[in-house]
Amino acid sequence: MSVLKKFFKDTIIYGLATVLPRLMNFLLVPLHTGTLQTTSYSDNTTFYVYAAFFNVLLTYGMETAFFRFFNKSDEKDKVFSTVFISLILTTLLFLGVVLIFNEQLAFWLNIPLKYFNILIGLLVLDTLVVAPFAYLRATGRPIKFASIKIANILIYVLLNYFFLWVMPKFNISFANYDKSDLVQYIFIANLIASIVTFLMLLPYFFKTKLQFSKVIFKQLINYGWPIMVAGLAYVINENFDKWILPYLVGKDINGAYSGCYKIAMFMTIFIQAFRLGAEPFFFSHAKEINAKETYALIMKYFVIVGSFMLVFIISYLDIFKILLVKDESYWQAISIVPIVLIANLCLGIYFNLAIWYKLTDNTRYGMYLSIVGAVITIVFNLFFIEKIGFIAAAWATLAAYGIMMVLSYVIGQKYYKVPYDLKKILGYLILAIILSVITLNTNANYYINTFLVLLFLGSIMLFEKNELKRLLKR
Predict the structure, then answer these.
(1) How far apart are CA 79 and CA 63, in angstroms?
(2) In the chain, which stretches have pLDDT less than 70?
(3) Tens digits of per-residue pLDDT, 286-339?
(4) What pTM does this model have?
(5) Contact yes or no for 218/148 (Cβ under 8 A)
(6) From residue 149, how far is each of 186, 207, 243 by CA, in Å?
(7) SS3 call for 389
(8) CB 34 within 8 A of CB 103
(9) What does the alpha-carbon distance between residue 92 and residue 124 come to, in Å, rounded to a whole number?
(10) Cα separation of 144 and 163, whole Å?
(11) What is the pLDDT of residue 122?
């Protein structure tokens, strides 16, 4: 099997582990937007903003550091064990402190105590399984990884439908079931799914002899802490808008904004699937003679697929809007979708480019770039939301990711020069944006929009025909 075929095979399997859960999550978007008021949907969004922030803090870059040192170390079991012990100890310390000050922390974060307690349970469980999940990926067991991920989301989705649709519709009830606070059952469903995942991965807690290496730990921390800072900045880039909007324009607008933002999840799914398959591959393939050429080829096809998705989603945006966000009160924010899609495509390119600082152990640059993006996000949102409304939050996201993408390319070529085909990459991006703008001005004429989608596909076939034939023959 060729190197590229192995990459695409693993990416497809890891993609299923990401795509299927996210697709199942799409089933929840109409459920949530149909049963929750925009203000409650805003509470749901805020809950997961905090979850994302604390997840980065609790893992402090250990997952990426694990991949880096696991692949190049002769003591792989010791690397896994050190990461595992480290995460367990810090997570238990976090749990102890939070249990003592839970009321004060809940008040400070401005969320109800019962939501906060569920949040802590989720954070602890999800952090404890980081090392076992990473071990499955690093040892080339994507099917096992995918099975557990899919089981997790399946439980979560089914419980959501049970709590939010079956029980109210068939008038089923149990002690303390509160129809006036349905959003809490989304969090409870997530907690139950995380408990099951923890139990499924429990055998990997005893996979190797527990041994903690101070030398390896120091290497992991030195490599990982800039990743953590970059991760925190990334969370700000992704979520600061949804955190600040309730204070500046109200929960109602934030709920609508967050609901429409979900339509851009198609691009997010693609990026996440790519990252899951690409990160282990990039590290393991780094020593190959043609590594840089392979990375350049992967980038080009990443941009091709991402650009096609941009054109396709915007061409049929009205259909996606009706399917996913059925409550028309959410549609007031539909104008953010094209902007957010382009922003996420820029983010995906940035993740692809990021291999230069990971392979050269210059992870501090990832931190610097993410901080630049976070500063742009914060300043743009604070300055412009009150002037032009919620649309400023979408533009802030695009500005942050676009600038990060450009800076990463310019700096990266100095440290780890990859021969990216800029002419074709920029060509496909510009063509996709032009076609997308046209589709937005056809008054949802699907004949014209379908023609434009086919035009983009035809352009790909015209310029990539020979290379695609060569790849398929390998």
Answers:
(1) 11
(2) 1-22, 276-280, 284-286, 471-474
(3) 677 888 888 888 899 899 999 999 999 999 999 988 888 878 889 999 999 999
(4) 0.81
(5) no
(6) 18, 19, 27
(7) coil
(8) no
(9) 8
(10) 29
(11) 96
| Contact assessment for residue 21 and residue 149, using Cβ atoms and an 8 Å cutoff | yes
Distance of alpha carbon 249 from alpha carbon 390, whole angstroms: 8
Distance separating alpha carbons of residues 22 and 270, to the nearest angstrom: 10
Element (H, E) at 293: helix 291-315
Domain of 377 in residue numbering reads as 3-473
Q: What is the DSSP letter of 74?
A: S
* 185 neighbors 160 (Cβ within 8 angstroms): yes
Q: Quick one: tokens of 264?
A: 């851009």
pLDDT of residue 15: 59
CA separation for the pair 66, 161 (Å, rounded)? 37
How many domains in the chain? 1
Confirm if 35 and 165 have CB atoms less than 8 A apart: yes
Cβ-proximal residues to 467 (8 Å cutoff; 6+ apart), any chain: none
Q: Is the torsion defined by CA of 226, 231, 232, 233 positive or negative?
A: positive
Q: What is the pLDDT of residue 249?
A: 92
> Alpha-carbon distance 219 to 211, whole Å?
16
Q: Given this model, what pLDDT does residue 1 score? A: 45
- 66, 83 in Cβ contact below 8 A? yes
CA 258 vs CA 35, 38, 112, 325: distances in Å: 15, 9, 20, 11
Rounded distance, CA 397 to CA 237, Å? 7
Task: Look at residue 8 in the predicted model and tell me its pLDDT.
Answer: 61
Tell me how far apart the alpha carbons of residues 226 and 344 are, in angstroms, rounded to a whole number.
22
Q: What is the pLDDT of residue 188?
A: 95
Closest CA to 452 of 470, 427, 434: 434
Name the burial class of residue 380, with classes exposed (0-12), middle (13-18) and buried (19+) by CB atoms within 10 angstroms of its CB.
buried
User: From the centroid of its chain, how far is CA 146?
Assistant: 16
Residue 242, both tokens: 């949804």
pLDDT for position 116 = 95
Cβ neighbours of residue 271 under 8 Å, at least 6 residues apart?
A: 306, 344, 347, 348, 351
Report how far residue 401's alpha carbon sits from residue 404's, in angstroms, rounded to the nearest whole number: 5
Nearest Cα neighbor of 408 from 152, 220, 166, 230 is 230
